[in-house]
Amino acid sequence: MDFILSCIEANREIYKLLNDKENLRDKCEIGFGGDISLRGDLEAEAIFVKHLSKFGQIYSEESGFIGEGKDIVVIDPIDGSKNFASNIPYFGSSAALKRDGKTVGAVVANFAAGCMYIKTESCFERLSFLQNKREKIISSPLHGIGIFEKAYSSGELSLKLCQSSLKYRSMGALALSLALSHEVDFVLFHGAIREFDIAAGWYMSEDLYRFENKNLLLVSKDKGIFDKIHNFIMELSI
């Protein structure tokens, strides 16, 4: 798929940029999504625009809508910008191609770990930046840990998870966490849901148990864990 190949090229260029160039953590103006953009965000966005604008109109967290076209390319140039700015090794990027309102291909990069998650209608793979090695993504056994993004926004739900011995981490990069949903026990998010945060990662979890409302996402590969957390959400009317 040409879109996937172009995403890979763009992410390789951004990966090199982040490892070679200084001053990428400098703050710039407030971006379209409402957060302060870093210089790295804007330079990564420019790389994505260069590689992906031929596939349709780009919708970016930093600049909003760019260009034109029938299809929509939804991007988050640096997913987990605050982690990147603070040298916390959990940040990446996300890009999804939407055709007639449906996602048909997506790539989520983990720049800190040096790999990309690639999904189309026919494959779901992990690709290493350094070794050019591909491996098929399958749901791994339960390991006793989930991810709760923005856990600080829901103290009651956090308490429910704690009381039920459902351990989690709050990582700070939603698209990347959703791309990992086959490898952790669950992924939970409570907060304002923006398309450029979830378009790629949500597509990667489409074969798992999922729940979504206007301000919450829940994904799990395990029916028992999914039902337990979903019941908490219903009890708390979140």
Write structural notes for this entry.
The protein has 238 residues and is α+β, with helices and mostly antiparallel strands. The chain has two domains: 2-136, 2-Layer Sandwich (Fructose-1,6-Bisphosphatase, Chain A, domain 1); 146-236, D-Maltodextrin-Binding Protein, domain 2 (3-Layer(aba) Sandwich). It is 32% helix and 31% strand. The protein has seven helices and 15 strands. An eight-stranded mixed β-sheet has the order 4-3-5-6-7-8-9-10, with helices on both faces. A five-stranded mixed β-sheet has the order 12-11-13-15-14. Strand 14 (209-213) and strand 15 form a beta hairpin. The termini are far apart. The mean pLDDT is 94.
Secondary structural class: alpha+beta
Q: Calculate the mean pLDDT score and round it.
A: 94
- Residue share in β-strands: 25-35%
Helix content: 25-40%
Order of helices and strands: HEEHEEEHEEEEEEHEHEHEEH
CATH-defined architecture of the largest domain: 2-Layer Sandwich
Task: Say what the CATH topology of the largest domain is.
Answer: Fructose-1,6-Bisphosphatase, Chain A, domain 1
- Give the CATH superfamily of the largest domain: Fructose-1,6-Bisphosphatase, subunit A, domain 1
Tell me how many strands there are. Answer: 15
What is the radius of gyration? 17 Å
Largest sheet: 8 strands, mixed
- Domain count: the total is 2
Q: Which stretches are low in confidence, meaning pLDDT under 50 for 5 or more residues running?
A: none
Strand order of the largest sheet: 4-3-5-6-7-8-9-10
